[in-house]
Specification:
By secondary structure, this protein is α+β, with helices and mostly antiparallel strands. Helices cover 37% and strands 24% of the residues. It folds into two domains: 58 residues, no CATH class; 81 residues, Immunoglobulin-like, CATH 2.60.40. It is built from five helices and seven strands, in the order αααααβββββββ. The protein is elongated, with a radius of gyration of 30 Å.
């Protein structure tokens, strides 16, 4: 290999390595890390501008002090991590509530098929969310307060008494919380 070809081949190797790195970065990146990068960039830029403004006006406004976690502060507050920014690692509450109801159903459990118009309404049993319609619930015999909430603010409520080993269907027509039209009535 001649001396004039060595720098060209080195440049080619560097370009190939960069292309492979960029390709792998693009393939391995996902929306979650992109969201985190965007939030970090926004926080950093805002924090930097606030810090610069604060440094320029430090004599006028004084230093900013954050409250420390006292005896009533939780462990997450004491560590400086906001509990509002921590994602829940467990199952969604609707799954947990539904499984708890079905686990306590017992051997004489009844079945309740829940439907709503319009479909895909949230189902609340005795004040706890259990999922969306249509749904078949296995419940212990007893009386239950069922509430359904639509995606556009519609609601519907019903009370159901379920007997041992009974299968029932409950279809609820959801009513709008607010009227679609307002009509003026003259006295």
């Amino acid at each position: 290999m001649s001396a004039s070809q060595t720098p060209t081949s080195n440049k080619l190797i560097v370009l190939v390595v960069i292309a492979v790195f960029l390709t792998l970065s693009f393939v391995l990146a996902n929306s979650t890390s992109a969201q985190a990068v965007a939030e970090t960039a926004a926080t950093t830029s805002v924090s930097a501008s606030v810090a610069a403004a604060g440094a320029a006006n430090a004599k006028a406004i004084g230093s900013v002090k954050f409250p420390s976690a006292g005896a009533s502060g939780s462990a997450s507050e004491a560590s400086g991590v906001s509990p509002h920014l921590v994602a829940s690692s467990g199952p969604p509450p609707e799954d947990t509530n539904r499984k708890a109801l079905e686990a306590s159903a017992g051997k004489d459990a009844g079945k309740l098929l829940l439907r709503a118009t319009p479909v895909e309404a949230q189902i609340w049993v005795d004040g706890k969310i259990v999922g969306k319609t249509p749904m078949l619930l296995v419940l212990a015999p007893g009386k239950y307060q069922i509430e359904m909430r639509g995606s556009r603010g519609q609601t519907g409520k019903s009370s159901v008494a379920l007997l041992p080993r009974e299968t029932r269907e409950l279809a609820v027509k959801l009513d709008s919380l607010y009227p679609a039209r307002v009509i003026s009535v003259k006295p």
